Amino acid sequence: MNITTHARRIAAISALFFISTLFVSAHEITLSGKVLGAGERPLRAGNVSIFRFGALEADTTVSIGNSGGYSLTFKASSGAVKVRFTGVHHEPLDVLVMSSKPMREQLDAQLTPQRFPSSPDSVVLLDQSNNYNISSGKKLEYKNGVYSAPMPDVQDEQYAYQIVPRYALQLRSEMIPFAGTVADTFEFDGVASYRAIFGTDKKSITFDAADIPRSNTSASFRFANPVLQQQATAYSMIAGFRRAFQDSTQRDAARQQQRGSAFNDMNLAEF
Predict the structure, then answer these.
(1) The pLDDT of residue 54
(2) Between β-strands 27-36 and 103-110, what pairing exists: parallel, antiparallel or unpaired?
(3) 3-class DSSP state of 163
(4) Measured between alpha carbons, how far is 236 from 40 in angstroms, rounded to an integer?
(5) CA 26 to mean position of chain CA atoms
(6) How far from 1 is each of 11, 149, 239, 240, CA to CA, in Å?
(7) Which residues pair with 86 in a beta bridge?
(8) Per-residue pLDDT in tens (0 to 9) along the chain, 271 residues
């Protein structure tokens, strides 16, 4: 059986099961386990969140403990929910959980670090003054391997901020902000990323990409129940195919737009 046929069969089986579990009565699910980051080390801060499919905001969120442990109980109104694992300086990981009846299950996860580009065109600062909007972020200066900016004039005793590298042909999926590398604590934004927080007595903001964890290990998850593991793995494959197609389409569109801009600039120069 070739890869395409195998993927289609997985998609068909998963779709049938998903549809069959949509219309079920509300039931209680308890998940617990351990979430680790690069090098199987505990995260500086992390969360486990429950999303209904299609929802932009989580129904339930809990913090991950200092040693990586978590436990949460929630009401599922359908037969499938999305569990999102997040951690400071790590990529979010979405895992499908299917169940049409109450259950208690162990679910462990290991996250992979965010990858900071080696030579971004620019690095911008997001904070409350620009409503954490990437398009209006303030550009940081780069010197001796560190990005920096003067401390903004704020009235609060604490300052929260994020960092976003920008470069050509960047995809929307690659614009998840980085928490700052200098912080007293971190704040989850409720979706997929974190804000670094420190006292406003500091004179400048600095970001050193060398402080981001590094690892070649891919993100992974493991259920105690092998059936749940198979279902979630099939969903991950389908989501991966869909994401790869969307990324390819977006990058092709960006290339065409870039070529069009270059052509227009050339015509203007000739004129």
Answers:
(1) 79
(2) parallel
(3) strand
(4) 21
(5) 28
(6) 15, 56, 21, 20
(7) 47
(8) 555 555 565 555 556 555 545 566 788 999 999 999 999 999 999 999 999 887 888 999 999 999 999 999 999 887 889 999 999 999 999 999 988 889 999 999 999 999 998 888 899 999 988 899 888 889 999 998 899 999 988 888 899 999 999 876 566 666 789 999 999 999 999 999 999 999 988 889 999 999 999 998 899 999 999 999 999 999 888 887 777 776 677 666 656 665 555 444 444 444 3
Residue 269 pLDDT: 47
In degrees rounded to 5, what are phi and psi of residue 154?
Answer: -120, 155
What Cα–Cα distance (Å) separates residue 95 from each residue in 51, 101, 221, 238, 242?
10, 18, 8, 12, 15
CA nearest to 198, candidates 210, 186, 213, 208: 186
Look up the pTM and report it.
Answer: 0.83
Residue 84: HSE in the Cβ half-sphere, 13 Å Cα cutoff:
22
Question: Around Cβ 99, how many Cβ atoms within 10 Å?
Answer: 20
232 token code pair? 């979630």
Which residues touch 186 (CB under 8 Å, ≥6 apart)? 44, 45, 88, 179, 194, 195, 196, 197
CB 148 within 8 A of CB 206: yes
Straight-line distance from the first to the last Cα atom of the chain, in angstroms, rounded to the nearest whole number: 58
Phi and psi, residue 68, nearest 5°:
105, -5
Burial of 225 (0-12, 13-18, 19+ CB in 10 A): middle
CA pair distance 39, 209, nearest whole angstrom: 18
3-class state of residue 204 by DSSP: strand
Identity of residue 270: E
Provide the token pair at 79.
């037969």
Contact 38, 90 (CB under 8 A): yes
